[in-house]
Amino acid sequence: MLLIAGVLGGLGLFVRRYASAPLRGLSVPDDAIANLLTTGFVALAAARLRFPAAEPALLAAAVLLLCYVPVGKIRHCVFFFISRRHLGRHFGRRGTFPLRH
Amino acid sequence: MSETDALEARLEALTDEDLARGLALFRGKLGEAEAAYLQTCVRCGLCADACHYHRTDGELASIPAHKLAQVAAVFRAHFTAAGRLAPGLTGARRFDRDMARAWVEALFGRCSLCGRCSLNCTTGIHISAVLKAARGTLTEMGLIPADLLQVVTTSLETGNNMGISRDDWLETVQWIEEEMQQDIGDPAARIPVDKQGARVLFTVNPREPKFFPLCLQASATVLNAAGEDWTVASEGWDLTNYGLFSASPAHGGAIAANLMASMERLGCGTLVIGECGHGFAAARWEAAEWLQKRPGFRIVSFLELMEEYFQQGRLRVDPAKVAERATLHDPCNTVRHGGIVEPQRAILRRCLADFVEMTPNRAENFCCGGGGGQLSMSRYRQKRLQSGGVKAEQIRRTGARLVVAPCHNCIDQLMELNREYKLGVVIKTVAEVVADALVRAPAQPREENHVPVAR
């Protein structure tokens, strides 16, 4: 179920990106490729659970995905933590974080 | 030649050597943090609503992610293998004349460096820090609007950003001192000048002696009422630092050194930054970085100091004296970038009968549109006033008749917004509100703390 939710989420983000004019304006080909690679990988992982014959395709998708990580925006899964650490340190040191409401 | 034309001429005259130098300057400003930020954006677009520019013009170019993308495009094209090999795939673009022009428009024309996008970035990118690094590159390439650079140059040449001479400053201080004495009926009240070893050195935004003497008088009234051992400096008294907006550490460091020199010369224990957002952020947080030296004294905002006075029972106020509904504007550099969030609120709750918060408020409050040097860049005036529409609407929704703003750049912008959007409000500093609400004890004989200087 989680994998199916992941696929639906990925497709939803894809539709949202190209249905919204501002997001379309921000987008580059990397956005479509990164989304399709990730969504495809998750879809194949879901398919593999029911259809073992999908395993070669899943492994191929995994290789493609891992090769693409350093090239496209999927790299944010690594850089996210570094950015968050720096942002937190910057605003934390100044007393802005934690936010008060 | 108009300022706009002059900048355009500089852009047209860019050579390949200039652009290569610009790239080298840009690379020099990229530390681990900036490089990580530039690799993290997923272009989700959720920062769009955080930006007062985008909320008022709806343009793609005003979305923070789009501004960041202009900078990231250059980073990728020149400093990443993927960007070099497949620029079309990742949106990489080489740093050429058109790109430099796009940077100028995005970084000076559509950003007040308020940092609200940074707080609302889903992936934790400090967008305004990246934009500031790119701004600094443009400044060092000579691609900075001339009127913004002029403010920096005036500070460097005269010691204050309005070119006020020492004699004029001292005459104004004397005049304000006399006004204060008459106003509060205390001939012993003083604005000490160059008092050696005073506990507090109070620094001032030059707009106060030049245009808003009542603000300085209010601050002096509060300091006298609290019985503070304080002084202003005859030189090195200007707290502003437009090096924060030119984003050049050389500018920022040279200007910040004036305040540090005053502290050393007078031997004071605490440097108090008057009500000025960028001046506080520059002195408290940036100066040590620019100068590569940790100051050997305490640097506080006047807001913190006033709150200390209240906590120590040194000020008595009557909120009934300021009865109209009032709201508080949060200057970006005081609050979001400065971390001074609650002292001003604690003060106003004591001094005001009807204090209401804007929505949103505190670190999530919107920029008034006057930050980032926007007030000094005439070519972007219309855009600045348009972007201030968010703040005007925030104020209108509170129903307040008094807007308190602890920052002179914000006050200038709010005054323009007041006219532009017909808000019908009065705008004051926090010290002015405190001075209005003060309940003064009968004048007591006190020790003379005035050290005369040549005026």
Summarize the structure.
The complex is a heterodimer of chains A (101) and B (455). With 101 residues, chain A is an all-alpha fold. Chain A has helices at residues 2-19, 21-26, 29-50, 55-68, 76-94.
Task: Give a verbal description of the structure.
The complex is a heterodimer of chains A (101) and B (455). Chain A has 101 residues and is mostly helical. The model of chain A has no long low-confidence stretch (mean pLDDT 96). In chain A, helix 1 (2-19) packs antiparallel against helix 3 (29-50) and helix 3 (29-50) runs antiparallel to helix 4 (55-68). Chain A has helices at 2-19, 21-26, 29-50, 55-68, 76-94. Helix content of chain A is 78%, strand content 0%. Chain A has five helices and no strands. Chain A has one domain (2-74). Chain B has 455 residues and is mainly alpha-helical. Chain B has three domains: 3-144, Fumarate Reductase Iron-sulfur Protein, Chain B, domain 2; 154-310, no CATH class; 319-437, Rossmann fold (3-Layer(aba) Sandwich), CATH 3.40.50. Chain B contains 23 helices and eight strands. Chain B has helices spanning 3-12, 16-28, 32-40, 52-57, 64-79, 81-85, 87-90, 97-108, 116-119, 127-140, 146-158, 166-184, 207-210, 213-225, 243-246, 249-266, 277-291, 302-311, 343-351, 381-387, 389-398, 408-420, 430-437, and strands at 200-203, 230-231, 270-273, 298-301, 325-328, 354-356, 402-404, 426-428. Chain B has a four-stranded parallel beta sheet. A four-stranded parallel beta sheet of chain B has the order 6-5-7-8, sandwiched between helices. In chain B, strand 3 (270-273), helix 17 (277-291) and strand 4 form a beta-alpha-beta unit. In chain B, helix 14 packs across helix 23. Chain B is globular, with a radius of gyration of 23 Å. The model of chain B is unreliable at 448-455 (pLDDT under 50).
